[in-house]
Amino acid sequence: MDVERYNAREVEPRWRELWDRSGTFLTQNGDSRPKYYVLEMFPYPSGRIHMGHVRNYTMGDVIARYKRARGFNVLHPMGWDAFGMPAENAAMQNNSHPAGWTYANIASMREQLKAIGLSLDWSREIATCDPGYYKHQQKLFLDFLAAGLVDRKRSKVNWDPVDHTVLANEQVIDGRGWRSGAIVEQRELTQWFLKISTFAEELLASLDTLDRWPEKVRLMQANWIGRSEGLLIRFEILPTPRTAATELEVYTTRPDTLFGAKFLAIAPDHPLAQDCAESDPGLAAFIAECQQRGTSAEAVETGEKKGYDTGLRVRHPFDVEWRLPVYVANFVLMDYGTGAVFGCPAHDQRDLDFANAYGLGNIPVICPPDADPATFKVTEIAYDGEGTLINSGFLDGLSSAQAKEEAARRLEESSIGNHPQGRRKVNYRLRDWGVSRQRYWGCPIPVIHCEACGAVPVPAADLPVELPKDVTFGEPGNPLDRHPTWKHVPCPTCGGPALRETDTMDTFVDSSWYFARFTDPRNETAPTSVAAVEHWLPVDQYIGGIEHAILHLLYARFFTRAMQATGHVGALKEPFDGLFTQGMVVHETYRSPAGDWLYPADVRVETQAGGARSAFRLDGGEEVSIGPIEKMSKSKRNTVDPDEIILAYGADTARWFVLSDSPPERDVIWTEEGVQGSAKFVQRLWRLVDELAGLAAPPGTPVPQGLPEGAAAVRKAVHGALIKVEEDIERLRFNRAVAQVHDLANKLSAAVGAIESPEVDAGMRAAFREAAEVLVLMFAPMMPHLAEECWARLGHSTLAANAPWPAADRAIVVEDTITLPVQVNGKKRADLVLDRGADTLAIEAAALALEQVQRALEGRPVKKVIIVPQRIVNVVA
RNA sequence: GCGGGCGUGGCGGAACCGGUAGACGCGCCGGACUCAAAAUCCGGUUCUGGUGACAGAGUGUCGGUUCGACUCCGACCGCCCGCACCA
C-alpha cells in the first residue's frame, strides 16, 4: 500500500545519464525551428560552485527547458571565464602552474554543474584560457588595431612598487596594495587602449532600444557614459615670463555663469602647471603633494580644496579690462574636458569652497525663481540650479537656457588668434578602456616591438601567440617579461631583433565576445561564422548578477560594435535582447561566544514553542549567537555547499528551493526549514502522481465532452494553473510559478481524497490522466529529474524532456457563474453569485436585495450603484 | 552630495490596467494515525472585541484625488543599491 519514498540520490543520476546518452540537449545550427538563445553569465573556475551559481543556472535552465517544450531550437551553452589573477596567486602559493590549477578546477566544477541537471549543450563548452579561444581573440585585437579602434598611449596607473605590478582600483585598499601592503604610487605607463569612447554616443543612444533590460541597468550605463553638452572657451593669457603659452582652454556646461567667474583653475598635471612649476619651486612642491595624495575615494571625501596661485592672469572674454587669476587646484581632473575650468563660486559648491578658502569672494549671477534679485546672496551654499540672470551685463534678465545660448553664440563669433573663442562640445565621462595587464595568466597582446619598425602586429598566420609554459612565479613582476627567451623574436617586417609585447589583456576582454563564440565554437579559421552569429544572436535571455551591470555589459556592447565594424557579426547591433539580473543567496550567520564564525552545517538550530530560535554547536553543544542575514561568504562562514545539499536532498530539491520564496531579482534567504519544505514537496508530488497514475485512464485517452461536475472542476483547476505557470515562466516570475504548482497539487490531492468508491467513472479517470500529465510537464522545467520519474510512472517510455508543453484550453477556465463582491461605500459586505451573462439591471437588483447590503445601508437611500463588469459592485449611499 | 529602488501578518512573499488585501510557502496552534516518536493527513492562523454569527481597525507616517487606493499624486520617516571633485 505505502508508496516507496522517492530516492533522488538513486534516480537523478540515471536520468542525467539518459539525457546524455540520447544527446537530448545538443543543439544543431541548421535546425529549422525558431531559435531561442538563453545564456547565463559563465563562471570563473574557482574550483567550487556556490549557491549563487545554482540559482543563476537553474533560472536559465527553467527557461531553456520551457522554450524547448514550446517548440524552439534552444541554444544553452556553458563555458569558463578562465584567465585571471587567482590562478597566479594559487601558483605562487602551491608552486603549481596556473594552467594545471585552472583545468583541474574546470573539471571538478563541470561535474558539479552536471549534478544540477542543467540542460546544457556541453559539446559547445569553451574556456577562455584555451589557445583555441584566445587565438581568435588575438585576431579580433589585430582587426580592431587595423580599424583604428586600438590606441597606445601613456596613462596613469596604480603601481605597486613591491610586487612590480599594476593594480586595479579595487585592489588598492587605503592607498596600499592589497597583497604587498606597499603604498601605491601613481605611475605613467604606456598602455594599450580599446577606443570605446568612439562609440560613446551610439552606446548611449542605443540603450533606448533595450526595452527588455532592467531600467536600473540602463540608467547606470547612461550615468557611466555621462554625456554632457557644453562649451570650450579659450582665455587669453596676459604676457608673462613664466610661460610661453598665450591661451588657456576650459570646458564648461554653464557658460551662463561667466559673469560670475572669479578664477581659473587647472589640474596639477596640466601641461601649463608643469610649465610654470619649472620656474616656481613652491608650485612644484604643491604639485608633488597633490600627486602623492592620489585619487583614492577617501582622499577625495575628506579632501579640502587646495590651490596655488600661478601668478598668471587671463582676460575675461566679455570684458577686456577684467583679469582673472589662474590657480593650480587639487580638485581639477586632468582627464576630463581640458583639465582646466573657470570657477564661478556663487553657482558651484566646489568653486565656492575654494573661493572661500582663498578669499576670492563671489558674485551671484543666477537668481533662483523664488528669490529677490536685489537681496540674493551666496555665502556657504552655492546655488547650482537655473534661474534669471543678474549682474551679467548683456545677459541680464535672460533665463539660464537663453543665457547659455547667447553666451555660446557670442563666443563662437568673437575670436582670438584667428580662431573662434568658443566652441560647442559634447563631452563624455566614459574613458577609453585600458586593457594592458602586467600579468602572465591572460591573453597575450599580439604585437612585436621593433626599434626600426615600431609596434608591429603579429601576422595572422603566426597566431596564436601562446603563453610559454615554463615560467616562474613568486618573484615580483611579470613572468612573461622575465622569461629568458619568449619575448625575443625577429621583427615580422624587417626581420631584425625585436621584442614581444609582454602585457596580457584584461580578462574583461575574454568575456566580451564569448556569447558570439558559442554560436560556432569549433570554428578553427575565424572567431565567428557570420551566418551562425546572425542566426543565433542577439541572446534572447541573458541572466547574471547585477555586479556586471556596467563594465561587462558595456564592454560586450562595445565589442559587438567593434566586431561589426571589422566584419565579424554581420548586422548585429546589440548582443543581449533580454537581460535579467538575479539576486543573491543569503544566509544568517552564527558566531561562538569566542567570536568565531561557524558554518551552518556545524550548527543545530532549535525553535521553541512560540517561535523563539536558538542555535548550538554540533560539537560540544555550546550555545552560539544567531547573527544577521548576509551574503554568503567564506569569511563569515555562512555558506552552504551545493554538493552537500544535492547529496542530502537531490538536485531537484535545491532547484525548487532557489526558485521559490523570493522574487528572482531579489535576494533569497537560504534556510534549513525551507529546504526541508522543498524536499517534502518532492515526496508529496511523487506520491500524488503515483496515486493519480493508479486512478487515471491509460495514456492517450481523450477527455470526453460533458464531464460530470467533479471531473470538470479538476480540468478547470488544471488548465487554470497551466495558464498561470506559462505566464509566470515567460515573465521569469519563478516564485509565482512555484506557488501555482503547490496550489494545483493541493487541489488534486483534495480531488483524489474525495474519491470514495474504488470504481472511478470514465470521465474522472480521463480527467486524472490529463491532470497528472499536465502537472508533471508543468514542473518539469523546474524539477526535471522528478518529472522524468513521474513521466515513466505514468506509463511513458519517452522522455519528459522531449515532451511538448501541454496546450492550455482557455475555454475550460471560463466559469458559468460568477461571484461578484458587493461593496457598500467601498467596504465589502457580501458576495453575489450570478449567471455569467447577467445584465447590469439584474445585478443591481440582486445586489440591493441582499440582506447584508440592506443591513449595511442602515436605511440610507442609495445614491448610485457602480457595476464594473466581471469585477465588483459598489453601492454608494 | 547626485541618481535609483523598496517599506504588506511572527517570517519569505501574493494581489493583472485603481476593484474581495494577505495567494503559496515557512513557522506556530489544535486534531487524526501511533504504545510512543518520525513521517503523513485534516483543521486553524493580520490585529482588537465577541463562545459565535458578526463588528471595528489595518499595506512605514501624514495629507490629497476617486464611488473605490498596497496600487495614482504631494510631503515626511526608515532601509537598500549605484555613482561620486566629471566643471
From TrEMBL:
Motif interval(s): 'KMSKS' region: 631-635
Domain Methionyl/Valyl/Leucyl/Isoleucyl-tRNA synthetase anticodon-binding: 717-839
Motif ('HIGH' region): 43-53
Subcellular location: Cytoplasm
EC number: 6.1.1.4
Sequence similarity: Belongs to the class-I aminoacyl-tRNA synthetase family.
UniProt GO MF annotations: aminoacyl-tRNA deacylase activity; ATP binding; leucine-tRNA ligase activity
Location of the Aminoacyl-tRNA synthetase class Ia domain: 430-588, 631-669
Methionyl/Leucyl tRNA synthetase domain sequence ranges: 38-172
Family matches, as Pfam families: Anticodon_1, tRNA-synt_1, tRNA-synt_1_2, tRNA-synt_1g
Residues the record lists as binding ATP: K634
Keyword ATP-binding: yes
Statement: the UniProt record of this protein carries the keyword DNA-binding: no
Phylogenetic placement of the source organism: Bacteria, Pseudomonadati, Pseudomonadota, Alphaproteobacteria, Hyphomicrobiales
GO cellular component: cytosol
Catalytic activity: tRNA(Leu) + L-leucine + ATP = L-leucyl-tRNA(Leu) + AMP + diphosphate
Protein name: Leucine--tRNA ligase
GO biological process, one term: leucyl-tRNA aminoacylation
InterPro entries in the cross-refs: aa-tRNA-synth_I_CS (IPR001412), aa-tRNA-synth_Ia (IPR002300), Leu-tRNA-ligase (IPR002302), Leu_tRNA-synth_edit (IPR025709), M/V/L/I-tRNA-synth_anticd-bd (IPR013155), Methionyl/Leucyl_tRNA_Synth (IPR015413), Rossmann-like_a/b/a_fold (IPR014729), tRNAsynth_Ia_anticodon-bd (IPR009080)
Chain ranges of the Leucyl-tRNA synthetase editing domain: 223-411
